Amino acid sequence: MFRVLQGIGGGMILPVGQLMMAEAAGPKRMGRVMSLAAVPMMLAPIFGPTVGGLIIDDMHIGSFASWHWIFFVNVPIGVIAVLAAIRVLPRVAPQISEHLDYLGLALMAIGIPAIVYGLAEIGETNGFASIKVIAPIVIGAILVVLFVLHALRARRPLLNVRLYRKPTFWTASIAMFCVSAALFGGMILLPLYWQSVRHESVIITGLLTAPQGIGAALMMPIAGRLTDRIGGGPLTLLGVVLTAAATIPFALIGAHTSIVFLCGMMVIRGFGIGFAFMPAMSAAFASLSREQLSDATPQLNVLQRVGGSIGIAVLTVVLQRSLEHAHSLSGAASSYGTAFWWAVGLTALAIIPSIVLIRAERRARRVAGPPAVPDEAIAEAVAA
């Protein structure tokens, strides 16, 4: 129950924060603002596992601490965040809002988890032939289709699927979905590889996850500025191709592959993620009016989470089934390589939407002309 409450709170923070930034930035500074805001998202997975490793590693625990501190450590961070929010975030006058779309919420809240559950059950059964796999996937797919039909008819649906009529929005959304699947799926595979194949400690495993996040954090501010100049499509395509290419060495991974080499490839993979992720999101936001931003932010976040969940489910199933036939350390490493080949494929799926995104942006610029400059006072405040 408390994990559900954590999810509810986390589900509020990101879309509302992105909405405030998108409204303040306007289309002309969208890439710069979104990329800067994404840097903490890339750095947090670096510090989280490292701090967690320090806490639970017996060599670093004194009489004053226990593994429970992996949860207690969030309390002071939360207090600081609440105080900063009260002091810094803008105050908005309450407005009359529409009633919550309970039917749409029920359809999505059951449909998406059912699909993910069915995919996860592949590893526990005999593949797609099991009723435990087929039934949840089919039921989930039907519920998602019913949600789309409901959303097209409802006056104020939970998610405004009509936004996908915009070529820039739907192509950027698909690219983000595929990159999220490869990104979060890869973040699950690497720590398992470091611990089960290379027998690294929890702390070292946490540190070895850092190169990818550092690469993405370094590249995102650069990608944001370039997005504002040339658009998100070309950078998204570059990022997708670079991410897929940098994942191939992990698909060829062995039990004794150089750690320095793998860390270098993780940095390059982070560069690709930095080029692909935020330019696609910025392109999606920039194609919308201010009135549509409140509908777009939750949808893009839902796509990220669903893409990540499906990517994790698919790659872990592939890994689990491959490990069943591994009887040595080299065989286990080969199983991880098989899972990473799937990660390469998930990333490559975003190439075609990225190409379509380039064409859609060019067409939109010809039709609309140069974007309107947002309110200068707000823009300067965001830039500062």
Structure write-up:
The protein has 384 residues and is mainly α. Helices cover 78% and strands 0% of the residues. The protein has helices at residues 2-25, 30-56, 69-72, 74-88, 102-121, 131-153, 167-196, 202-208, 210-230, 232-251, 259-286, 290-323, 329-348, 351-368, 376-383. Helix 2 (30-56) runs antiparallel to helix 11 (259-286) and helix 7 (167-196) runs antiparallel to helix 14 (351-368). The two termini are 40 Å apart. 38% of the residues are buried. The model is unreliable at 371-384 (pLDDT under 50).
Radius of gyration using CA atoms only: 22 Å
Order of helices and strands, N to C?
A: HHHHHHHHHHHHHHH
- SS summary, helix count: 15
Report the average pLDDT across residues: 81
Secondary structure: number of strands: 0
- The fraction of residues in strands falls at under 5%
Q: Which residues sit in consecutive blocks of at least 5 with pLDDT less than 50?
A: 371-384
Structural classification: mainly alpha
Dominant shape = globular
Distance between the termini: 40 Å
In this structure, how is the largest beta sheet organized? none
| Residue share in helix | over 70%
